[in-house]
Design a protein that fits this description.
Elements lengths: L2 H9 L7 H4 L1 H14 L24 H22 L3 H27 L3 H23 L8
Amino acid sequence: MNEEACEEYLKDPEANAAHLRTCAKCNAEAVALSEKADVEPPSIDLNALPLAPWEGSSHRAWPLVLGTAAVVAIVALALLDAAGMSPLHVVEGSLTSMEAIRTFLNRSASSLRSASLVAQIGFGLAFLLVNGLLIALLRRAPRGIDA
């Protein structure tokens, strides 16, 4: 049993495979390591693992979402009844408040139509640039946590 030969075998076991026939200690270690390496890992039952949020929608609590929406609608109707208002009155009030926004958009569109040709082209180019940037960002591959 030569310590130098053992060290050479440990550095490059494939090149010094003949050393195992002459050294009982290294042979015993090689046999023990090969026995440990032959052990198969235990099988994993994939159905027992929890699903990640993106792996399926079967575990989402849709009944809870729909129930919550129904409760909110019932509470809103009860508050409207307690205030002495009808839902139609609230819808009409919402539509009249939307009239101000509609008027603003109409004025903005008419001011753009009456603007100079350079301003209209600049607006068009800005529109295309912003939308092109958004498309480029949406087409880019998302980066995960491990990226």
